[in-house]
Structures are given as C-alpha cells and as structure tokens.
C-alpha cells in the first residue's frame, strides 16, 4: 500500500469540513488499515495462517493447536465470557459515573475517560496474573479496574480522599497499586514506556541473576498513537528487543491526540510496522472487538512469558468522549464518531454471547445491574471517606524519613513529632 | 507575527485546536499553516527544530503545553539555545522564545504543577520572564520575540482566565516593555513584598489586608527573573527596611533565595528585620484539594510573614 509523500503545508483550515475516515485524502490512499480489518500481520518469526474471517483473527501455531483440542470452535467459554462482559461493563459504568461526578464538582483537575476502548483493557489485562505489571498513561481508570484495584479505591482517589489507592496524593492520572502491580498512571505520555521496560527488565533480572526460577512476570505497557512519535518509545523498542525483555507494548490507537489527528502528525501512520524495524513482531488488531484482542494478547503474553521477547500490538480503537472532560471535542467528524459508536465493544460481545448461546439476556442484565450497584457504592464510599489529614502533606516525599535533613535543634527533622503537622515552608 | 514574517509559532495543538488553552485562537486562520505549526508530541524534536531555525535567523515561538513538558526538551533549551552564543563566541545568536503555562493549576497533580522559574533562572544565556497582568503579557512577549537571545516566557494557566484593566498605551501595536525591569505595583513604606506571576495577585490582596491593620506594603512585580532587577528591589528595601519574598515554586534554591541573598549582600545595613521567604511546600504537589491548598502559599501566609517582619504578633498557622 503506497503513501504519497505528505505535504509540509497541511491544507486544512478551521472551517474545513472534516473528512470521514473512509474517504481518500491528499496524502493517504484509501487503505484497509482504517476501519475493521480481519487481517492480522505477524512478521517473522511467527507464520501467518489466514482462516475464515468470521471470528478468528490471529493464528499462530500455538493457538492453532489449542483450538484443535477444544470441543467447540468458540473463542471463549461461558465463564470467560461473563468475566469479560462484567469487566467491560464495569469500565463503562465507572467512566460514565466519573463524568457525572466531575460536572457536580466532586472531582477536579484533569480527568480522561476511556469510553469505547474497554476491549483493549479487558482483552489484555484479564489474561494477566496478579504478579504481572501494568503501566498506563493518564487514561488509566479502567486499566486500574481491570487489574483488580477495587472501584471504591479508584473513586476515592478521584475524589481526593484518604482512602484512595494513592491516598489522594495522585489523582486521576496517577493511579498506583503495589498490591495489584499497577505501577502508574503517568501524566507525560511515553514516560510510562521506559518504566514498563524497566519492570520487564527486573523480571528477567530476577530470573537470571537472582535465580528466582519461576519468575516469569510479564509487563504490559499501554499508550496511545500520539506517544508513538516520541523518542522514548523508539528507544525502548530497541532495548526491549535487544535484551529480549518480557514486555508487550500495546498501542491504543484511537486516531486522535487531543485535537491532533494521527494522520496529520505521523509520517507513516501504520504503527505496527515499527515493531519489525526493531526486530520484534508488530501486530495490528481490531481494538473494538474484545475477542480478537484477547487472541492476540494470549499470543503476545505467552511469547513474553516464554522468554522470546517483546511484541508491539497496535489496537485500532476509538474514544467516544473527548480527550478529557474539559475538551470541547469539536474537531472530530460526527460521521467518524457514529461509525465507531456502531462498533461498540460491549454491544459486540453481548451479541456474540447471545448468538452463541453462552449467556441469556437476563444474565447479562443481571451483571449490568450488579455493576451499577458496585459503582454507586463506590461513590457513596468515596463521599463518606475523609479528606487526607494535614500530616499527610509531608509524608512519603522520601522513602527514607531522614530525607528532610537536620532541623535547627540539631536533630533529624523526622524525629520532631510536630514536623508533619504543617507545611514545610511558610 | 504581522510585523515580522520570520516569526512563526510551533507547538502541540496551537493550530486547529486553537491552542490547548485557546491562547493561539484565530492565528491559524490569520497566518496559515506554514506559520502556525501543529507538531506531534515530540518536545525534544520540535524544540530542537526551533533552535536550528533560530540559528539561521528565523524567530520561532515554541509553545510547551505546560512547562513541565519542557523537561523533555530541556537539553535543547539549555545546551543548544542558551549556551550557543557563548560557545560560538558570538557567531550564532538564537532569537527563540519558549513559552507556555508554568506552575500549579487546580488539581492537576505532581507532574503538571512544578514551577520552573528558578531552574531556568539559574542558567546564563537565557532570559526568563514572568508576566502577571495583561499589560505585562503583551509588552513582555513582544520584547521577548524581538530579543536576539533565547527567552523562556513563563505564563500561568490560572491567570489566563483573569481580566486586568489595560491602558490605551498598552493597546498600541508597538507597546513593548523592557526586559530586566521590575514594576512597583503598589507603593508602600513599611515592608517590601516581591512576587511574580500569580503570586503578585495574592501579594496585592495581602497588601490590602495589611493596610487595614496599619502596615503599608510595597508590592513589586518582578516581571523578569533573569536578569533580576536587583536595583529596584534593593532601593525598595532601603526605603522600607523589611523584605518578604513570595513564590510558588519549591523553596530550596528558589527565586526567593536569590532575592534574599542579593538584599543581604547589598542592603544589609538597611534591614530592620530578618528577611522572610515564602515558597511552596517542599513536596511534590498533592492531588487532594485540601493538601494542594496547603502546598501553595495563600494570602494569609503572606499576611502572617509580613506581620512577622514587622514584629507584630501573629496567630498560629492557618487551618487546612
């Protein structure tokens, strides 16, 4: 597929009627890349075996063997399907509640919602063990929820209360949970990628240097299309492939970075191609279909666990809301939004489960009701929780409490019981 | 931009999005996409591109969505922009402006709230400006763009929404303020309060409160962190004999530290009380609203410090 060289002068004015996704553009021939694609491109060493495009997308030898053993040709069992459905409904209801709470003034600052992208989070994170790590960007509420952080802890964190997962210190963009191995929550995009690569490095180090033989923890790094223009991304692709680190790089390509279209900012918009340039497989998958994502994720995570190195997975997805709750979202074409709204991952999974008799309408409704109650309870819990006490302001600046140095009386400041009572410097 | 075709604007979301905080609204329509460039999210890349363009005589205005993101490009600001004129013995000048919001906004967390005035203010080869009012912003930005040296222009997100009275002189198209000159926003005779950016507003409110208690405070709007207007500050302290410096950034090695030292070095004999330094709390900015309020100086803190400098008794620290 050829791309004519993009012109330096972007021929767009603010009144330009925005082109919808499918129409040809001045520097981009019509392409199978955008829109749903049933082709999955693995570059060597995994061979591609195309099958019927109905439900199965990714095939590798390992996956094909597993399929022969199962009695049905469905991708998931009933239990798995219910787990996936519940997780996506939790993500969606939670984010909708966040929007309500923001407009009521209960949370503040920057809030970035994940509506529409649930398939990526659920598809990947539900395959991970508790010890596997997840690193995300500021759009991290649903990654936290999928990884197992309780909804009430996430909601309290958003309200800035002491019972939040970061005790109110971090906020929407900085969700951390050591217990669930969610190591952030980073506000600068691409900042999380080297950190994730480091987490993968530590897993490999523990296995090989510290001889913890069963340490096969995998790290999954989530980030967006805008991040793929940043230098840190390329540096980490190089090092992860060089050192064969157990990491999966997941690009949630929702085509927009605030108001900057992916096509306007990237010389070659097909991000999956950048993997093979560094010697790792690059995969493109339809991120609006949780089953397809899950298939690819299985393969990528297993690869990492076996020690074969990193994978770059590009999930084509879409965010139904604006970049953040403060974004007027004027630049996106309504036709594009409608196109993707029609491919809502939750409706797609619901349809699949009902058609294949994995669950009934009532069972799914019962799950939705249960999740509504969970989210309501989370809000009540967060409302009732206390604000952080004054003393928390000075806590945890250093892991070593002596970090604040020696006070005027010659003793360590941390030994003064009054030290944590006020601000450090007024 | 209308006066000089070599001036162009480059940054994330400055064009079609009309600016992340709507600062560059309408510019794309007026000057076209060749002069208002939307960049990918590549701070190091586009800051470097700006510096290279400046080497060859163009006048880029590089916008960082917040100055926190300038940390990804700080190598170019310091090493390729600030130091070039010196390293090349004057052959290369870098007429570039780096601008964007600096300091804390409301509830945006630790990675979006740092104040960079003291870091950039320490660097020889850079000029650092911090406007407060609309008049400051207009005059200083014009001066910055016309200046043949790299200028770091630290704005403030919360000040974008505030309105200020503007004189007719300021609206004139050639209105320009000198770089390196502070402004005395309010005359007084008992204590000198120096501040920059958002803290000037707080200092003025504190001065109102102090006036009711019989303390006449002189408020200096620094406007220029580098070069610092030491003579205005020292002359003011020689008149009032007391100093309170206010800033939002971290206390150690901050702007206040430099001002206090300058006053002690040059006007020690005139001081009637120890210098008072107010800064943000020595912690990364917390997210929770009550903790955030405690981490940033408030008007009551300035009032208390001014009273301490005047040897009045003060109540205990304000409650959260």
TrEMBL record, chain A:
Leader sequence segment: none
Gene3D superfamilies membership: 3.40.50.970
Cofactors named for this entry: thiamine diphosphate
InterPro entries, per database record: DH_E1, PDH_E1_Alpha_Subunit, Pyrv_DH_E1_asu_subgrp-y, THDP-binding
Catalytic activity, EC: 1.2.4.1
Pfam families registered for this protein in UniProt: E1_dh
Domain of life: Eukaryota
UniProt entry tagged with the keyword Coiled coil: yes
Disordered as annotated region, ranges: 1-21
Role according to the record: The pyruvate dehydrogenase complex catalyzes the overall conversion of pyruvate to acetyl-CoA and CO(2). It contains multiple copies of three enzymatic components: pyruvate dehydrogenase (E1), dihydrolipoamide acetyltransferase (E2) and lipoamide dehydrogenase (E3).
Subunit and partners: Tetramer of 2 alpha and 2 beta subunits.
NCBIfam families from the UniProt entry: PDH_E1_alph_y (TIGR03182)
Name of the protein in its database record: Pyruvate dehydrogenase E1 component subunit alpha
Taxonomic source organism: Cajanus cajan
UniProtKB/TrEMBL annotation, chain B:
Source species, domain of life: Eukaryota
Cofactor(s) required, per the database record: thiamine diphosphate
Description of how the protein assembles with itself and partners: Tetramer of 2 alpha and 2 beta subunits.
Biological role: The pyruvate dehydrogenase complex catalyzes the overall conversion of pyruvate to acetyl-CoA and CO(2). It contains multiple copies of three enzymatic components: pyruvate dehydrogenase (E1), dihydrolipoamide acetyltransferase (E2) and lipoamide dehydrogenase (E3). The pyruvate dehydrogenase complex catalyzes the overall conversion of pyruvate to acetyl-CoA and CO2.
Record-listed E.C. numbers: 1.2.4.1
Protein name (Swiss-Prot/TrEMBL): Pyruvate dehydrogenase E1 component subunit beta
Enzyme class: oxidoreductase
GO molecular function: metal ion binding; pyruvate dehydrogenase (acetyl-transferring) activity
Matching Pfam families: Transket_pyr, Transketolase_C
Chief place where the protein resides: mitochondrion
PANTHER family attached to this UniProt entry: DEHYDROGENASE RELATED, PYRUVATE DEHYDROGENASE E1 COMPONENT SUBUNIT BETA
Reaction(s) catalysed by this chain's protein: N(6)-[(R)-lipoyl]-L-lysyl-[protein] + pyruvate + H(+) = N(6)-[(R)-S(8)-acetyldihydrolipoyl]-L-lysyl-[protein] + CO2
GO cellular-component term (any): mitochondrial matrix
InterPro entries named in the record: PDHB_mito-type, THDP-binding, Transketo_C/PFOR_II, Transketolase-like_Pyr-bd, Transketolase_C
Matching SUPFAM superfamilies: Thiamin diphosphate-binding fold (THDP-binding), TK C-terminal domain-like
Residue span(s) of domain Transketolase-like pyrimidine-binding: 1-162
Keyword Mitochondrion: yes
Keywords in alphabetical order: Metal-binding, Mitochondrion, Oxidoreductase, Potassium, Pyruvate, Thiamine pyrophosphate, Transit peptide
Organism phylogeny: Eukaryota, Viridiplantae, Streptophyta, Embryophyta, Tracheophyta
Subcellular location: Mitochondrion matrix
Coiled-coil regions listed in the entry: none
GO BP of this protein: pyruvate decarboxylation to acetyl-CoA
């Amino acid at each position: 597929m050829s791309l004519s060289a993009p012109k330096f002068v972007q021929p767009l004015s603010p009144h330009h009627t925005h082109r919808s996704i499918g129409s040809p553009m001045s520097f981009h021939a019509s392409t199978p890349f955008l829109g749903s694609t049933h082709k999955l491109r693995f570059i060597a060493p995994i061979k591609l075996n195309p099958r019927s495009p109905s439900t199965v997308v990714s095939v590798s030898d390992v996956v094909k063997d597993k399929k022969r053993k199962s009695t049905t040709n469905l991708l998931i069992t009933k239990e798995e399907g219910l787990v996936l459905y519940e997780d996506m409904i939790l993500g969606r209801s939670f984010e909708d509640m966040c929007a309500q709470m923001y407009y009521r003034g209960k949370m503040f600052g920057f809030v970035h919602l994940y509506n529409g992208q649930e398939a990526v989070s659920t598809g990947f994170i539900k395959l991970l063990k508790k010890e596997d790590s997840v690193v995300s960007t500021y759009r991290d509420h649903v990654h936290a929820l999928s990884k197992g952080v309780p909804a009430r802890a996430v909601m309290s964190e958003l309200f800035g209360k002491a019972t939040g997962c970061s005790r109110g210190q971090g906020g929407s963009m900085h969700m951390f949970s050591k217990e669930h191995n969610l190591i952030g929550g980073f506000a600068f995009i691409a900042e999380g990628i080297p950190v994730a690569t480091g987490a993968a490095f530590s897993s490999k180090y523990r296995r090989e240097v510290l001889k913890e033989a069963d340490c096969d923890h995998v790290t999954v790094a989530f980030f967006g299309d805008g991040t793929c223009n940043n230098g840190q991304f390329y540096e980490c692709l190089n090092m992860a492939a060089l050192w064969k680190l157990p990491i999966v790089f997941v690009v949630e390509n929702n085509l927009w970075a605030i108001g900057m279209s992916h096509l306007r900012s990237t010389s070659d918009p097909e991000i999956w191609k950048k993997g093979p340039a560094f010697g790792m497989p690059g995969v493109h998958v339809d991120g609006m279909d949780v089953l397809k994502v899950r298939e690819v994720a299985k393969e990528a995570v297993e690869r990492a666990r076996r020690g074969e190195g990193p994978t770059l997975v590009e999930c084509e997805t879409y965010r139904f809301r604006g970049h953040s709750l403060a974004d007027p979202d004027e630049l996106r074409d309504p036709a594009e939004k409608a196109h993707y709204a029609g491919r809502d991952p939750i409706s797609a999974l619901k349809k699949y489960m009902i058609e294949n008799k994995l669950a009934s309408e009532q069972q799914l409704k019962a799950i939705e009701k249960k999740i509504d109650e969970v989210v309501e309870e989370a809000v009540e819990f967060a409302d009732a929780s206390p604000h952080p006490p004054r003393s928390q302001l000075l806590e945890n600046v250093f892991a070593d409490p002596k970090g604040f140095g020696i006070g005027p009386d010659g003793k360590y400041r941390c030994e003064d019981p009054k030290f944590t009572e006020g601000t450090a410097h007024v | 931009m209308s006066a000089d075709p070599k001036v162009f604007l480059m940054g994330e979301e400055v064009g079609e999005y009309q600016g992340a905080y709507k600062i560059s609204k309408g510019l794309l329509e007026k000057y076209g996409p060749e002069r208002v460039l939307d960049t990918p999210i590549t701070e190091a890349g586009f800051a470097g591109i700006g510096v290279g363009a400046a080497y060859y005589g163009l006048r880029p205005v590089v916008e960082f969505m917040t100055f926190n993101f300038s940390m990804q490009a700080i190598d170019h600001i310091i090493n390729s922009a600030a130091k070039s004129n010196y390293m090349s013995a004057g052959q290369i000048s870098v007429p570039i402006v780096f601008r964007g919001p600096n300091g804390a906004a409301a509830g945006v967390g630790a990675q979006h709230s740092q104040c960079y005035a003291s870091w950039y203010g320490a660097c020889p080869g850079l000029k650092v400006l911090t406007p407060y009012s609309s008049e400051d912003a207009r005059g200083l930005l014009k001066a910055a763009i016309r200046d043949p040296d790299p200028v770091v222009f630290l704005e403030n997100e919360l000040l974008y929404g505030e309105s200020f009275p503007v004189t007719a002189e300021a609206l004139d198209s050639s209105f320009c303020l000198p770089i390196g000159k502070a402004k005395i926003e309010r005359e007084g005779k008992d204590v000198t309060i120096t501040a920059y950016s958002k803290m000037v507003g707080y200092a003025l409110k504190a001065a109102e409160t102090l006036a009711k208690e019989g303390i006449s405070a002189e408020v200096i709007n620094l406007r220029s962190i580098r070069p610092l207007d030491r003579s205005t500050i020292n002359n003011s302290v020689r008149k009032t004999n007391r100093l309170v410096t206010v800033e939002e950034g971290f206390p150690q090695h901050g702007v206040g530290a430099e001002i206090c030292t300058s006053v002690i070095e040059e006007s020690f004999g005139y001081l009637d009380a120890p210098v008072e330094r107010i800064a943000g709390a020595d912690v990364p900015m917390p997210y929770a609203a009550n903790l955030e309020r405690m981490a940033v100086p408030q008007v009551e803190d300035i009032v208390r410090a001014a009273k301490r400098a005047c040897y009045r008794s003060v109540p205990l620290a304000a409650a959260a």
